[in-house]
């Protein structure tokens, strides 16, 4: 396991004394994702949550890592252009990234960090723009996903909380699936129902 993999898994384990069960939980989530997207055309999905601090970004990082461990070529995109967290997990610069790419200020090749873990490439959020929702809903975002789908087996996209901003809904129609991350004992049923309705 590489240093980046260890950091990501440790970020999810925190003070839990049973890391094996945590790793197995991510592998179970990977299996569910593979079955859910088995008949999808493009194998792309967003990860979102109703509220902040539900573990969405940690889940996205670890799911991308265990997915890449099955010899799939995976791209993880940090589309949270308001409070990005993934750059800290993978320790990459955010000087380039999604925002600059969608604005035509850089190229895909320059913006993507290659092999942050074996088989996993990462596109950071880039500098925080004034109009993240418009960028995610743009034609440039659609073209980016079309280009990425030709190079990668799976694309995972981390988005901001749905009940805080509407960025995730701007991109939901461009992907094949949605994984909703909720926090046990914190996220309420009304919050989940509101999120599901918004995504629909």
Quick gist of this model?
The chain has 200 residues and is α/β, with parallel strands linked by helices. It contains 10 helices and 6 strands, in the order ααβαβαααββααβαβα.
Query: Mean pLDDT score, rounded?
Result: 86
Strands in their spatial order, largest beta sheet: 3-4-2-5-1-6
Unreliable residue runs? 9-17
Q: What spatial form do the alpha-carbon principal axes imply?
A: globular
Discrete helix count = 10
| Rg computed from alpha carbons, rounded to a whole number of angstroms | 16 Å
Total E-strand runs: 6
Strand content: 5-15%
Binned, the helix content reads: 40-55%
Q: Main sheet?
A: 6 strands, mixed
Order of helices and strands: HHEHEHHHEEHHEHEH
Q: Please identify the structural class as seen in this structure.
A: alpha/beta
Cα distance, first to last residue? 38 Å
């Amino acid at each position: 396991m590489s240093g980046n993999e260890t950091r990501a898994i440790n970020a999810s384990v925190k003070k839990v004394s049973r890391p094996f069960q945590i790793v197995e939980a991510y592998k179970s989530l990977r299996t569910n994702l593979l079955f859910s997207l088995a008949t999808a055309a493009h194998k792309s999905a967003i990860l979102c949550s109703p509220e902040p601090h539900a573990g969405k970004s940690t889940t996205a990082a670890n799911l991308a890592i265990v997915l890449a461990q099955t010899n799939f070529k995976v791209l993880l995109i940090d589309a949270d252009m308001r409070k990005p967290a993934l750059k800290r997990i993978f320790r990459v610069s955010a000087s380039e990234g999604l925002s600059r790419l969608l604005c035509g200020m850089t190229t895909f090749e320059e913006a993507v960090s290659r092999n942050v873990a074996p088989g996993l490439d990462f596109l950071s959020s880039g500098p925080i723009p004034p109009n993240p929702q418009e960028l995610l809903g743009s034609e440039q975002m659609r073209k980016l996903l079309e280009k990425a789908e030709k190079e990668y087996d799976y694309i995972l996209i981390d988005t901001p909380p749905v009940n805080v901003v509407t960025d995730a809904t701007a991109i939901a129609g461009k992907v094949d699936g949605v994984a909703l991350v909720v926090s046990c004992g914190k996220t309420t049923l009304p919050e989940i129902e509101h999120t599901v309705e918004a995504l629909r």
